[in-house]
Amino acid sequence: MNNALLVIDYSYDFAAPDGRLTAGGAAQAIEPAIVDRIRAAHEAGEPIFFMMDLHFEQDTLHPEAKLFPPHNIEGTEGRALYGKVRDAYTEIMDAPNVFFIDKRRYSSFAGTPLNQLLQERDIDTVTLTGLVTDICIMHTAVDAYNNGYGIVVPASCVASFNGPAHESALDHFKNALGATVEP
Ligand code: ZN
Predict the structure, then answer these.
(1) What is the whole-number distance in angstroms between the Cα of residue 158 and the centre of ligand 1?
(2) How many A from CA of 43 to the centre of ligand 1?
(3) 8 A C-beta contact, residue 150 and residue 125
(4) Whole-prediction pTM value?
């Protein structure tokens, strides 16, 4: 198995108590487990991809404009990595196998160079962490499945503002996408 770690949308807006689209306490609770995964992956020499939602001020043409309040706006603290995940990123950001990549849709694969970067590194399995389980993690997992990657989802490293949807997403990863859902 040749694994890459993805840390998805762990931004101030999605995780902070006063973030614009926050998953609240559930999002803050996964912070230490994500930091542990980042440190372990880095020590193992695995590539790490920090995938970050990017929106523009007053962009009414984006499909999410009708669905969610404005969040992760370009140039704001809202789209900075949150808390100790930010510190962990800062420690390793200059390493060659650490990437910070903007994305503009739920899936980390949509319109990004992620798939090419994984293929160039002979990655066959992706470990998905971050926010939120039933939206950006889900869409990334589906695209990973369709692109032939194995999927690992540590349940302690994903969260949502919607508890039941979080649980059913974990079921879907396991039962429909063949993912390994770890505790
Ligand atoms: Zn968004």
Answers:
(1) 17
(2) 31
(3) yes
(4) 0.98
